[in-house]
Amino acid sequence: MEKAKGIVWKLNDLYAKDDDPKIHQDIDEAIEAGKEFKKRFHGKIASEDCTEDRLVQALQSFESIIEGIYRPYAMANLLFAADGRSDKYKALVAKVQDAHTRIENSVLFFALEIQKIPDDKMSEIYASGKLGHYRHYVESLRLFTPYTLDEKSEQIINNKNLSGKTAFVNLFDEFTAEFEWELEIDGEKKKLTASEVRQLLWNQDADLRKRAKIAHDAKFGENGLIFTNVFGNLIKDHSIEMEMRGYESPIQPSYLSNKVSKDVVETMMDVTTQNYHLARQYYRLKAKLLGMPKLKGSDLYAPITKSERVIPFEEGEALVLDSFRGFSPEFGDIIEKAFSDDWIDAEIRPGKRGGAFCMSVTPEFHPYVLMNYVDNLNSVYTMAHELGHALHTVLSSEKQTALTFHPPLVLAETASVFAEMLLTRRLRSEDLDRETHIQILASKLEDFFATISRQTMYIQFELAAHQEGAKRRLSADDFCTLWTKHRDEMYSDVIDFFPEEKWYWAVIPHFIHTRFYCYAYTFGALFVLALYNRYEQEGEAFVPKYRELLAAGDSTWPQTLVESVGMDFLEARFWQGGFTVIENMLDELQELAG
Ligand SMILES: [Zn+2]
In the chain, N or C: fewer CB atoms in 10 Å? Predict the structure, then answer.
């Protein structure tokens, strides 16, 4: 079987067929339920006479509205992902999105009223114990209460944002979307988009990589005035708002939305910085494997091996199943069901969405996985990754409900990246040829240095830019100097960067779109490695703890969850365990390199 031909999901667990009249009936009912909810509870949650019983009733009604809309919402989006050319599916997605917005507008008051319940009232409600597993949901919403302004001020900020920070974000997007590069490839001049130029960094040809990298970064430098203004103004805007709301530091709102404390994040970042030398060791080794005296800035992604192993779908399936089963027979059974009960759509078809995702609906339904399988190792890793998400959903659906079964953001990639580690373990247990062995180790290590070390470096630059930028207007030179300072702290003299690369800060969209998001990547990846290190130490005894961690969904604070399975986020030792795994893989690679 080539390229997963015939591996198509069956959606009839959700609805009998794609034009089942029940889809439209469910959408209408959910809209009605939203209106009813508003009639019944608006003004009655933040009021003095709100009882624990009323709040529980409201939470349950709210949850059933979410369940009601998510079933048709999932159906529409899955149909559309499987065939994006169909006008019928496009219309269905538009209808369900419209319904979703209408419902959101009806229920918007609920979260705001929960935030406004007076503290003493709230303590009484907590003490009654009646909130049960909803308590954490309520507590998470109320984290922002001290920093929320009165309704009028919130409205003014929202409205002024349209011509303020939103306008700068839009300017960044629209401006960079038009960027084009002209490069000579195989003797021919070609016009390239951003993703096409960036793709060239994975090319075998070192000279082409170099020309692509220099041209790419230079373009951002030529437009430095725009990027300096966009980033500088967003920093200023954030600093004004932080002061109005009474936050202590520019990164504090991110701690609150990630539900992880400052101390935990600082411990993690400190340990990561102390282990920068491992990244340097790896890139020195990479230069050796590529036969170069030293890597240039354009060689970070250069491919190390030339041949690639062909892995047909059935073989990939067997590898992934085996890797889950080797960890826990129960996990193996769950994943086997994903294959036998057709939760997966893996074949390549015209009109199907690219990339991969795992969609969870509600705890009542199993998740669905979409991917585009192309018979190589990368595809097998994608399969393991998405099925890791699916496993997480299945386990958290056991006891949690629609409001609490999605993992918190910092744990969202735990099961998926852990599944990749299990696949790596399974692959390394084979008698591998040297080339494949090097390929597996190098690509995993490169992933880790990109998501752990480099993202921490990004955050350190971003934090410094916010701290400085709140005090004075930063010039283009200031940004470039800050960037190269933090970059060089990580890479030291291991890489020869081109002068144009001082503009790389202007390339990273996260600084513009999702302030201080990058540490979530570090957190997710390093957390999994630290867990994996525990698994290597504890063996079987670790399995039920890990299961419990996944099954808890979003029912309590990440820190409490981790403590309940005997680990501690606040200990540097815990995070260092993650680097032990990296160090071992690096030693193995060093040995293979000879
Ligand atoms: Zn993922």
Answer: C
